[in-house]
Amino acid sequence: MFDTMTFTKVVGGLCGAFLVFLLGKFVAEEMYAARVGHHGDEVVQGYLIDTGGDDAPAEEEEGPSFEEVYASADPGKGERVFNKCKACHKLEKGENSTGPYLYGVVGREVDTAEGFGYSGALEEVVDVWTPEHLSGFLENPAGYAPGTAMAFAGLKSVEDRANVIAYLDSVDD
């Protein structure tokens, strides 16, 4: 039923199909590369679609400052935002999880949660967790303290950050 000739035909068919695929890839790269000329190591694009915009970065709209938002922050809303943090942090003093406990974090010195092994990246950036420092860290942890072990993407909304910091500040005595 399955002799040497049939096997040879199947292998030859697969090799032939692979060869056609590679040749098609080569032809497609040559067609779509659209290289007009080389200037040193730079490849000049053969076609350019003018969108009418310039390459200058768009200015971000300045919203209210963190201090203004924090002054009117709502701890109740911050409790709901804190649900994102519960996977790694606990509010009970001394009860660490994947991350350190957050009881009394506002105003606490950095890297001082008892029994938690820190990465050391935070000490290089801040000394005390003020609301402003917490806001900067919560916006983009990896960007604020490069090398931190916190893998959270961050809270982009200044209102969410202010609310969760107000909630954390209201939890402790």
Automatic annotation (TrEMBL):
GO MF annotation: an example: electron transfer activity
SUPFAM superfamilies the record matches: Cytochrome c (SSF46626)
Keyword list, A-Z: Electron transport, Heme, Iron, Metal-binding, Transport
Highest taxon above the source species: Bacteria
Classification via PROSITE patterns: CYTC
Domain annotation Cytochrome c: ranges: 73-172
PANTHER family recorded: CYTOCHROME C (PTHR11961)
The protein's name in its UniProt record: Cytochrome c family protein
Organism this protein belongs to: Pelagivirga sediminicola
